[in-house]
Give the backbone structure.
Amino acid sequence: MSQPFRTEKGGRIDRGEELTFTFDGEEFHGHKGDTLASALLANGVHLVGRSFKYHRPRGILSSGSEEPNALVGIYRNGDQTPNLRATQIELYDGLEAISQNRFPSLGFDVGAVNDLLSPLFPAGFYYKTFMWPKSFWDRVYEPIIRSAAGLGKPPRTPDQDTYANQFAHCDVLVAGSGPSGLAAALAAAETGARVILCDEQAECGGSLLSESNASIDGKDPANWVHETVARLSSMENVTLLPRTTAFGYFAHNFVALAERVTDHLAEPDSKLPRERLWQVRAKEVVIAAGAIERPMVFPENDRPGIMLADAGRTYLNRYGVKVGHKVLVATACDTAWQAAFDLADHGVEVVAIVDVRETPPDNLIAIAEARGIRVEAGCVVTGTLGRKRIKSALLGRLMTSGQVASGGQIDCDALLMSGGWTPTVSLYSQSRGKVVWAPEKGAFLPGISVQKERSTGASKAVYGLQACLEDGYAAGEAAATAASGKTATITYSSAYGGEAGSGGILGALPHDRNASRVKAFVDYQNDVTAKDVKLAVREGMHSIEHIKRYTTTGMATDQGRLSNMNALEIASGTLDKPVTDVGLTTFRQPYTPTTFGLFAGISRGDFFDAVRKTASHEWVVQHGGVFEDVSQWKRAWYFPKPGEDMHAAVERECRTVRESVGLFDASTLGKIEVVGPDAAEFLERMYTNPWKKLAPGRCRYGLLLNDAGFIVDDGVIGRLAEDRFHVTTTTGGAPNVLATMEDYLQTEWSDLNVWLTSTTEQYSVAAVQGPKAREFIAPFIEGIDLSADAFPHMSVKEGTFCGVPCRLFRISFTGELGFEINVSRRYGEMMWETLATEIEKRGGTPYGTETMHVLRAEKGYIIVGQDTDGTVTPYDAGMGWAIGKKKFDFVGKRGLARTDLVADGRKQFVGLLTKDPKIRLEEGAQITTSENPATGTAAEGHVTSSYYSAALERTIALAIVKNGHAREGQTLYVPMPEGSIPVEVTGTVFYDKEGAQLNV
Amino acid sequence: MKRYSFLELAKNAFSAHQNWGRQWRSPEPKAEYDVVIVGAGGHGLATAYYLASEHGIRNVAVIEKGWLGGGNTGRNTTIVRSNYLWEESAALYNHAIGLWQNLSQELNYNVMYSARGVLMLAHTVHDVQSAQRHIHANRLAGVQNEWLTPEQAKDYCPPLNIEKNIRYPVMGAALQRVGGTARHDAVAWGYARGADALGVDIIQNCAVTGIRRNQNGSIEGVETAKGYIKAKKVGVVAAGHTSVVMDMAGVRLPLESFPLQALVSEPVKPAFPCVVMSNTIHAYISQSDKGELVIGAGTDQFVSYSQAGGIHITNHTIDAICELFPQFRRMRMLRNWGGIVDTTPDRSPILSKTPVPGLFVNCGWGTGGFKATPGSGHVFAHTIAKDEPHPINAPFTIDRFRTGRLIDEAAAAAVAH
Ligand SMILES: Cc1cc2nc3c(=O)[nH]c(=O)nc-3n(C[C@H](O)[C@H](O)[C@H](O)COP(=O)(O)OP(=O)(O)OC[C@H]3O[C@@H](n4cnc5c(N)ncnc54)[C@H](O)[C@@H]3O)c2cc1C
């Protein structure tokens, strides 16, 4: 099929395999091995996108991940992924790409009117306008700005793909597989060290894949790559990861890699993840990320057809694509000359080589002359023409005065440019290293290592093939030795050709045009021009950080990789200060944009957060129970019978427990086994209550404060033996209580001999509550005398339940006679099913958390986190009795003594009864003294719990009220949007005030 | 100060924008100032601006170790809201909300305050209780906040996933319509330009290295990288480094500094209409005018001054976002960064006089002080000028940690931002 710009032969594409793809609906052909960019170029398509602000037509600028212009959306499975770089998309059959940020079409984009209006839109213009009329910002200006901004369209449907996660350790991680990276990997691997080599491209080899003018060990460089990769793949200690970007360098040599697994496949295996996150802990890291070429900043340097010289060379040598028929090469350094020579050798007309330098190297001039290429030294491009593709370029001659004289116009259909090379120091900088300015190289280079890493090759401005190989071998050897102490002797390959060039320029080129009218782009994607940078400086933005933010240079999706150095030089020139005074912005992860799905990994749905289930879970599901989420746990909320709503179910459950017996799964409560000679002393210091005199076999309610003196947790603690306690905590508080205990034990009280073990998941706990609780459990329990005298309220004993060992507590959170049976988790289902089956027969009921809440509220028992909120002291909660008055110390004792905590007027825990017994207050509702409080009135407190009480046949509520304990009997108001609700302040115990039900 | 307007832009277009003046000067420090503010973040600059504009105190320097606005002001995710629980907080943040309304006009600098609405999701019964409590408290305090059912929440924010089959389904949301976002840099720059025009010296690249006190213990001046500067009063507004600076005056503060991370996606066309926050699953999101999804979560767990955090925080932030918005899983992260936030035990700020006469401190904003910038500067300027707190910041003393009169927003709801 016709691919008019395809070379006759050469390149690494598979000419035998033709692929069909579409761009904006139009069908094209390419070959296996092409990128979308190379395939489009082979078809003569340069115009691929529109710029962000001015909607200028843009073409493919580079051949790598730094591409700022050629961003496209890829359609697949009915949705699209925006902003992918055509230079990185591997072609597959049936690929569908669309251009972005244009309406209605790429060729005709109404947004391009912005380009005409651009005099009104200099850097930061939006800070200066859109302020009048005020209401227009939200309603008019911002919506317009928003719809004009943004690049591609966001995906609209849930992503169907999966993402994987892999943890890995290695001795040496090599990032980048150009000559230095391959040499480093090989040198390290030959020592036997465990090596991971990754490269963001589909193939290893980097610049070697487009080298035309060199040989290694007498071989074509690509062959050397092939052999080296084959050798590495054959080694068990090496992991080769192509299509894998090292995107983040974190503390302690932790490097994150993103591997693209299926995006390049026409029909991916649905079992494969789309991408894989590698979280690598490397003993040593070798950064071999190379260097990228810099655009030249001259007027109209952004037309389609204008491209980096090395990209032009890569398209030719690697992909077999000619970027044009008449190519102009503009450069400030030697390397671009080779691009011109290679093109000429493929029969492309090179209309001229325009070099900024007065005297480019003689040998290059000689080669050019031999090929009949016109050379213009001391010459710059001062402008270009052509709307959707460059047609011609204006040349200017540099005069000794510093002025530029017009140098005529020259026709071309492509322009290759090179401002020189910028070492890729991003990963080094991410490792928290400080880059150092090397004036002789015109570049920032890696400085002292902060972590265990070293840069090699072009990423530290070592250029030239032989030098890069040598540097790579040395880096690999040194890294392996540092990591594993091993050495090996390997024979270095030697290279011929591929010499380092010289030259390079930073900043904007001089020209003879009206500087204030022309646009010379510094940041392509964000449409930042040299003028904009100068304007920012003029307006007082003197640091690169301000300039960047004001102009948005360096904030596009290439993160300034192409633009930073030029912007810096322009700013430094305008300020007349050295580059180092203007500063370089720090590089942040990710190195290139990284898919959200990669970070999220398998974490979705049930994998989003562990689902913790108790032994009763299946039974509850089968019996129609409804669950609520309480931290990670699924807890049975209520058990509706057919036809019952939540209210009816809860009312029935409450009534049954009070009248007969109920069964509740209490397994989620935190459990900590506190053991050791100092266990009692430890609890004495942690909890407010006294523990030392608690006899084995007895329990006590424990109250835990933070050091500020506020309640943070509570639970019943049983003493099993002199040196052993069974501590329970709230469900949500379990991890924190354990962590706090460990914290104190390890940092404050290392004198104590105590061990803490979380046993939350080791026990299943069934709470059996109600007047018939004793007779109900009796048949199942052996080894414990259940009579009231032998086993009074607040006791704990060990015995068996249905023959398996159990810890039996006699405790109650309902105010009824109650037991909690703890058995090993493995018998949890057995226990639950046994009890649940039996209880229905005996007229009892299983009940859920809602009923538990109601029953405890009837008794005025607090729920930490609902009735308290971290601002409530034990005294506020009416639980001064829980404080061991004679205790020397406990956590929070000092906090509790602070003036405000003992002052009058604190908010205190009370009961509330609505005057109308049918009205149920809303939890969280505020309480005031006035029936019609004015806006801004300070609340007297708020409703913390509120329920319908079946036992009282009316609603009840608990609240925190200022001075509440002294206000019993007073009428207060709960202001609601529909009007205030009068309430009476009461005590907190609504049911069985004497506790008669407990002690039966 | 040359006023900014569309007309002015058009006029300047004819002169190719060659004639715009500096937004602020780069002066050398004078030997003495009436007030020295340490830290040119939004809060410090706003303080200086209001000292000059409201209290006529113009012999003021703002001393900044880096570049103005380069601290947390320039790193934050710009959520603005005021539906805090306690009356004291609500009053403070609502004061700011009031000032936000006219800030662009007042500063003649478009700070892009955009009342897109802040939706705070509830995923558990406990969340619902907490949200309802806030709504009731806010109604009484005169602060906008309303309850939405999951369906109403989806109407307000169509990308939201309210399916019941996700791990923590949305049970409803609290919406504050006046909440939204603003442009962080513009806030710093607008205040800087305004303050500069009133005569305030903003001295950048000049770290404060010491605080001098006289024999009576009162403030005398500050040592800086550019030499000693005398000052009658010093206001420290140094965010994550406040405890370090206050230590120079011998004042210890109950502050801990943590890294807080945020990230943005590549820019896309409008995809997200408002701000959504979820405390239970730890993430929040909005879309900037440029088109980037702006995403954040809670702090790293360990105290640190390092502005880079661990990848696990990013993983958990993004997995939460993808859980609520599964269509964003194919979006890509463009940039991830961190700032150092100074947190107090009760997660409320300190805006206070100090035991040292002439020394004032404004700190402890933790993960959520950007929204308060105008209000904070306004009442802090009052505190410095009058040597006594404005009624709004009177409760936000240092002393409250000694007396226990806390304003505990953390305990109340564990709300960030
Ligand atoms: C990632 C992130 C996201 C956030 N998101 C939000 C949000 O969505 N909404 C919200 O309301 N808040 C948010 N915040 C919090 C908010 O950014 C801060 O509370 C607020 O910006 C603090 O402003 P500031 O002016 O006090 O601090 P800063 O802007 O940090 O200013 C303090 C200044 O003091 C300077 N300084 C320090 N030491 C010295 C010294 N010795 N000498 C001189 N100068 C010194 C620093 O360089 C700095 O410029 C976020 C913070 C972070 C880090």
Observations:
- Chain A has a mean pLDDT of 96.
